[in-house]
Design goal:
Elements: H1 2-10, E1 22-24, E2 28-30, H2 35-44, E3 52-58, H3 63-75, E4 85-92, H4 102-117, E5 123-126, E6 133-140, E7 147-153, H5 175-184, E8 194-196, H6 203-213, E9 249-253, H7 258-268, E10 280-284, H8 292-298, E11 309-312, H9 322-339, E12 346-351, H10 356-360, E13 366-372, E14 375-383
Parallel strand pairs: 4-5, 4-6, 8-9, 8-11, 9-10, 11-12
Antiparallel strand pairs: 1-2, 3-7, 6-7, 12-14, 13-14
The protein binds S-adenosylmethionine.
S-adenosylmethionine (SAM) binds at residues 169, 171-173, 197-201, 203-204, 252-255, 258, 286-288, 313-315, 331.
């Protein structure tokens, strides 16, 4: 997350330095607020799941003391949205260590917001279907010093929803996870080809192109910015941040029914047509027959480039035992033999099958636990 963000801010329209973030748990980075940096994150950042502008927090674990903390803090906060009328919603994350249920917690935060805005002449009402502003509530901090944090969602909700995927495969990788996978592979789009040998709906190749060219995933006018004074003078256009980069990507799958789905998803994000045909190539191919020369044949533009990277998520299999399991393990070990032919290449994958590493037969250089749509697994990185 951090490496991607640094790279984006450096190429953004702003001359701004980004400070090292604090870490909250394993998966949250905290940056000091700067509207320009927040604008870059909200419009371009691909690996984050949500982006919140934290406003205030309270150590209270019961409803009345929480309200007593939030009301004065929010009342004095000139960052809150203005206007005469505000439709808003409140989303509560995991709050099992709070001494009331999530609905009650949401009710108290809602009341504090309504009461804080009323003296300013803002009539605020809940509208969960089409809110102008979404407030987010999360429990955060070390176990002995937990807080309830209230913020504004500035990233346009759950960011794996890019708004473009038209065909879902049987086990699609979340877009945010696909982007993380590509970042972990340390792919250099200017000098290395990227191959997804089991691309399914094409999520990884699509995210790879987006990262390579620095394409926006949100438009400022679709975000909350019009309601927040801090973002008033920031740009409305979101051009690619790395416009000169032409990535070389090969997306393969053995299943012929996945090919039209992949083409449809690429078309939906504008990655088909003559200007992309040398850049991203789709083919039906069994990974088990892949050789270095087949990559050059299918993706001629990769000739002369350095050894590349494989980015993929293999089928995980449902733990049924018997023949299907054996076939899956045989596939993993054949994959291991195939990748051994690719000297100098790297591979990054997300796998949710604990037997993968042994069957694949190579030792990963990096292992990072992760969860995809409730499936626990790990990112693995290999060097061949
Ligand atoms: C978990 S899915 C990949 C999902 C994909 N990353 C996405 O987000 O849509 C695994 C894919 O591996 C493909 N596959 C299975 N065996 C293969 C093989 N031997 N060669 C190439 N692809 C294979 C399947 O058809 C399936 O589309």
């Amino acid at each position: 997350m951090e490496a991607e963000f640094k790279r984006l801010v450096m190429r953004s329209p702003f001359q701004v330095r980004i400070e090292k973030p604090l870490r909250e748990g394993d998966s949250t980075l905290l940056y000091p607020f700067d509207a320009r940096i927040a604008w870059v994150a909200a419009c371009y950042h691909r690996t984050s799941s949500r982006i919140s502008w934290d406003l205030c927090s309270s150590e209270a674990v019961r409803l009345d003391p929480l309200y007593a903390d939030l009301l004065p803090a929010l009342s004095a906060d000139d960052r809150l949205p203005g206007g005469e009328h505000l439709r808003f919603s409140v989303e509560v994350g995991s709050s099992t260590d709070f001494e009331a249920g999530p609905l009650q917690l949401r009710g108290v935060v809602k009341n504090a917001i309504v009461e804080a805005l009323a003296p300013r002449g803002v009539a605020a009402e809940i509208d969960a279907d089409s809110p102008d502003v979404v407030f987010v509530v999360r429990r955060a901090g070390l176990p002995e010093a937990r807080r309830t944090v209230v913020g504004i969602d500035i990233g346009g909700g759950a960011r794996h929803r890019r708004g473009a995927r038209v065909a879902m495969g049987p086990a699609p990788l979340r877009e945010t996870m696909a982007a993380q996978l590509v970042m972990l592979s340390r792919w250099d789009a200017r000098t290395e080809p990227l191959v997804d040998p089991m691309a399914g709906g094409g999520t990884i190749p699509i995210e790879a192109v987006g990262l390579a060219v620095g394409a926006a995933i949100r438009k400022p006018q679709d975000l909350v910015f019009d309601h927040l004074a801090a973002f008033k003078d920031l740009p409305h256009d979101v051009p690619d941040l790395f416009p000169g980069t032409v990535p070389r990507i090969l997306a393969l799958d053995v299943d012929p029914s996945r090919i039209p789905a992949m083409v449809g998803n690429l078309r939906a994000v504008g990655l088909t047509g003559p200007s992309h045909e040398d850049s991203i190539v789709i083919a039906q191919q069994d990974l088990r027959t892949l050789k270095p020369e087949s990559i050059e044949r299918m993706l001629p533009a990769s000739r002369g480039m350095k050894p590349g990277v494989f980015c993929f998520n293999p089928p995980y299999g449902v733990r049924m035992g018997g023949e299907d399991d054996k076939k899956l393990l045989a596939l993993y070990s054949e994959m291991g033999r195939v990748f051994a032919r690719f000297s100098g290449w790297r591979a990054a994958c997300f796998v949710a099958n604990p037997e993968f590493i042994e069957a694949f037969g190579h030792a990963p250089t990096m292992t990072k636990p992760a969860t995809n749509a409730e499936l626990r697994g790990a990112f693995l990185v290999y060097q061949f």
